[in-house]
Write a structure and sequence with these properties.
The complex is a heterodimer of chains A (about 325) and B (about 170). With about 325 residues, chain A is an all-alpha fold. Chain A has 10 helices and no strands. Chain A has one domain. Helices cover about 70% and strands about 0% of the residues of chain A. In chain A, helix 5 packs parallel to helix 10. Chain A is globular and about 65 Å long. Chain B is an alpha+beta fold. In chain B, the strands form 2 sheets. A 3-stranded antiparallel beta sheet of chain B has the order 2-3-5. Chain B has a two-stranded antiparallel ribbon with strand order 1-4. Chain B starts with a helix and ends in a 27-residue tail after the last helix. The chains are: A mainly alpha (about 325), B alpha+beta (about 170). At the A-B interface, helix 9 of A face helix 1 of B. Chain B: It is a peripheral membrane protein. Chain B: InterPro entries: 4Fe4S_Fe-S-bd, 4Fe4S_Fe_S_CS, NADH_quinone_OxRdtase_chainI. Chain B: It is an enzyme of class 7 (translocase). Chain B: Keywords: 4Fe-4S, Cell membrane, Iron, Iron-sulfur, Membrane, Metal-binding, NAD, Quinone, Repeat, Translocase, Ubiquinone.
Amino acid sequence: MTNAWWIIGGVLFVLLNTAAGLIWLERRMLALWQDRYGPNRAGPFGLFIVLADTLKLFFKEDWIPPFADKVVFVFAPAVVVASVLMSFVIVPFAPGIVVADMNIGILFFLAMSSLGVYSIVLGGWASNNKYALLGAMRGASQMISYEVFMGLALMGVVVLSGTFNLQQIVEAQRGLWFFIPQLLGFMIFMVAGIAETHRLPFDIPEAESELVAGFHSEYSGMKFGMFFIGEYLGITLISAMVVTLYFGGWLGPAFLPPVIWFVIKTFVFISLFILLRASLPRPRYDQLMEYGWKLLFPLSLLNLLITAAIKLWLNT
Amino acid sequence: MLSLLRSMWLVFLHMFHKRDTYQYPEQKAPLPARWRGRIALTRDPDGDERCVGCYLCAAACPVDCISLQATEDEHGRRYPEFFRINFSRCIFCGFCEEACPTYAIQLLPDFEMAEYNRQNLVYEKQDLLIPSQGKYPGYNYYKVAGLAIKNKDKGEAQDEEPPVDIKSLLP
């Protein structure tokens, strides 16, 4: 039992520090891809920028607008962090390093990640501000349209491995990583994952050029920081899930321990998220919905159908 | 879809490009000579003040950040008794430089004027006056003006005809 507490504490520690470290990583990587240097003054390679940002967030005036619904306003940012942290419960970092080895792992992940939208909707609604409300509405409809085929895209992996348990899914990839037989599923999951974390180019709920800052227009101080950390945790979660489901999780040549393989692969995907932010323009709002419902949703159904058919054909 | 992947690849390649950043405090940005930065009062080639206190700069200033008071010395040469620019209001538009008939007020390529205390941004005459001719070397207003001052009588200015004796009939 004590072992489990160590794992929970370790996972929490690593995740929260990763989320903070991503502040630096993102700014540095974006700078690299825009021919700049990025933070390079505070500390070695500008690493203390994280400290400075954190201090700034803590000492900023934490203002609650008088017209806001106070309870919901304070509650909303906590939801996103809590729900994303809960999703990490089922991610297997290495054989044995997992908080809860559940047989319904993927279902739990889907359930928890869909809770994240509450944070956006409640935050936008409680702000009692038209821009925030518009952002929340966009967030809600984006989540609804991309949540559906996110689950469907995952079902290809489930069909191939025959289990919802993530450890067993990783073990099933020992011969061949699932991104080769499930290339379409991987791409759909990736797009849905980006939309799920409402990262660029799908940052429509907070599109700062149209809505002031979208659903978190009225947020300041550490309450804004929670949304911020929640976003980075979301990136880490989706990257970890992509690695677990399609890129063989902790599997890799034996010269490095499994957990290091997992971390390396996850960071490759986190960098891919940042590269996406650096390179792609934001789609228009109706384009996003149309793309989701008319293209990706049928494609994910098709992917599931074909995967299932091939699986049946191979088994008989 | 392919174009998206292509643009991602092209952005990724920027990782290996040269950086465009100026590492500012160590490496200064090369500012053009006509950069509109800090305002200074320049001197003429003799080392005297160029400003004649005509108030044109203060009149041209859209934000009214210049205030001055003109006075005269014993030879009739005008100069500002005080000259004050409030840089916390200044928008560095350069209108004062355009308006100045004596090239006295000039905007220099220098932007490093940050202060912790707002009051320190109010520059008095001793802060503004520099021992230099600025962008227009060799120009001396009192050498071309038809005004009699010390060491120069009427008609002795550059390209100036001697004054006509209106009481005389001789050509």
